[in-house]
Design brief:
With 87 residues, the chain is mainly α. The chain has one domain. Helices cover 69% and strands 0% of the residues. The protein has three helices and no strands. The two termini are 23 Å apart. InterPro entries: DinB/YfiT-like. It comes from Salinibacter ruber. This is Damage-inducible protein DinB.
């Protein structure tokens, strides 16, 4: 039996689950849309990259040097979000 987690650890896990849920909803909506504004994809890409940096800091992995504003398409965003969920 593992030791109970602190309330802060529980809060962080809840935030990670919410973030993954919200990313999935956003991607589903954008992939289902007939047209997606370029700016929406740019912002989603940025958010996913910033999220990777923070996850890397929490996990102690090397994501601090990740470029935050990169011209990615929706497929690349979906791949990044999928990789993030796999953590």
């Amino acid at each position: 039996m593992s030791a109970p987690q602190s309330p802060a650890a529980d809060d962080i896990q809840t935030l990670f689950r919410y973030t993954r849920w919200a990313n999935a909803r956003m991607l589903d909506a954008m992939q289902a849309a007939e047209a997606v504004p370029v700016r929406a994809v740019e912002l989603l890409s940025h958010l996913l990259r910033v999220q990777d940096v923070w996850f890397g800091r929490v996990e102690g992995t090397a994501h601090a040097d990740l470029a935050l504003w990169v011209d990615e398409d929706l497929a690349a965003c979906a791949e990044r979000a999928g990789t993030s969920v796999a953590r």
